[in-house]
Amino acid sequence: MPRNNQGELSPTLKQCYKYLKLTSRSFAAVIQALDGELRNAICIFYLVLRALDTVEDDMTIPNDVKIPMLRHFHLNLQDTHWSFHDSKEKDKIVLEDFPTITAEFQALAPVYQEVISDICCKMGNGMTVFLDRGVGSLHEWNEYCHYVAGLVGIGLSRLFSASKLESPEVGRDERLANNMGLFLQKTNIIRDYLEDVLQGREFWPKEVWGKYGRKLGDLAEPDNRQQALHCLNELITNALELVPDCIAYMTRLHNQSVFNFCAIPQVMAIATLERCYNNPAVLTGVVKIRKGEAVKMMMGVSNVEKVKAIMHYFTSQIESRIPKDDPNAERTREVCSKALACT
Ligand code: PS7
Ligand code: MN
Ligand code: MN
Ligand code: MN
Ligand code: MN
Ligand code: MN
User: Fold this and answer.
1) Which ligand approaches the C-alpha of residue 32 most closely?
2) Cβ neighbour number for residue 314 with a 10 Å cutoff
3) Is the pLDDT at 8 greater than 80, yes or no?
4) Which residues are part of the catalytic machinery?
């Protein structure tokens, strides 16, 4: 860790950890617990992407301003003075004080800088593809989730390998790393249905919701409850297909701090999917897992066998709740069996 001549953490690094705590409920603790060089590298990676996502999410920035900003965002990492003061988003502080993040980015070893900059460039360009239209096909759903989360998984895996805390194989297998990110992102998109629709943002794929309603927002109407639940369940089934690859990825990890960092969000995601399955509350409000439940899971994931046991439990809960009249009941049963077989 870079220290000043009094042997203390530099003020900009301290500030970065304050921003991490301010902007992330779910990642702050696991990032701070990372070993060695990964701690700062991943803290800065998080803040850079949080800043980029704040631009993507800000509906008050017109697209003709937003598109070049997203495309060129990675160049800001080379400009110690760049900042942005016109965001209305809750995490706008990371844009307003971006120079503090840039200062610590530039203090990272060059390999870490290269990974972060490369992912930031690819994500910013990818985000522009879906700015002015919803997600159509399932192929496009996978594509959007690749840009905003699969790339994070790929970048993180390269950082793990670069640190030597994990083997080169972890950073080379982009398919498994991508699917780790997709599992988190699909869960986030499924859970955030109402919040996103109310903000005019549509991330559920039309190929699926089009079978159940005329407009995505219609699924929130009480008259469409049954159709909406069928749609919800179909998307959860799609996300559950990723479980075997997530288990395969986590099986390869050796470092305990990296393992915890990867596994805790994954078990939170499966618990969230279980909570959301066939649950009308997704369409009318916010569905969150109970705090006590979350804490229990975070303590229980010390190795891959325990992660498998938790994933097995939530999958079997979903399997037991498949409605007889669900149009995808058969497919959901099949996907659950595959997940149960590897856990
Ligand atoms: C660098 C830790 C571990 C192989 C800001 C972690 C938003 C779900 O916007 O904040 O509130 O709805 O609830 C995280 C794979 C990315 C994917 C993506 C970067 C796992 C910008 C997380 C976090 C790969 C785009 C946060 C994908 O959810 O979203 C670092 C391995 C950022 C990971 C966004 C979403 C993350 C997300 P919101 P949340
Ligand atoms: Mn976003
Ligand atoms: Mn966001
Ligand atoms: Mn969301
Ligand atoms: Mn969030
Ligand atoms: Mn089993």
Assistant:
1) 1
2) 23
3) no
4) 144, 191, 201, 261
